[in-house]
Amino acid sequence: MTTTVLPSAPVVLERRFMIRSVRPPQDAQSARIQAWTCLAVFGWPGPTGSAVAIIDQLVRNAPEFGQCAGEGIEVRIARTDADDLLIDVGDRYPAFPSFERAVAGELGQGLWRVSQRGATVSWHPHEHGKTVRAVVGRRL
Known about the structure:
- It is built from four helices and five strands; from the N terminus they run E-H-H-E-E-H-H-E-E.
- The chain has helices spanning 24-42, 48-65, 99-103, 110-116, and strands at residues 11-20, 72-80, 85-91, 120-126, 129-136.
- A hairpin with a 2-residue loop joins strand 4 and strand 5.
- The chain is globular, with a radius of gyration of 14 Å.
């Protein structure tokens, strides 16, 4: 199991939203729109386009690998005092048996693409499923 990467500084701004997983392309589009708005409100100085692409990919992965089709995908975007961005995407499936291989690109390209955009990717199980986290610095 991989331990979730913890922020290096306190969280100063946070937004949570739920996306009902019905059709992955539309789910991702909804997440992108909400992410652009959120990052603009946060005034995050990092690469917004990369952060939105990371959110898009994590939301697209949730129905396929998180077994949450027809259920909610929980999204949390948080900015730390050090200007890191925490992106958490939660689903209802508590396991992630091949996480390291997925990040390495051996099992699909989604998490590999997220890591190639400069994010540090981790995950942790919880009582309602699991959360995949991407930590993005303001300078990728």
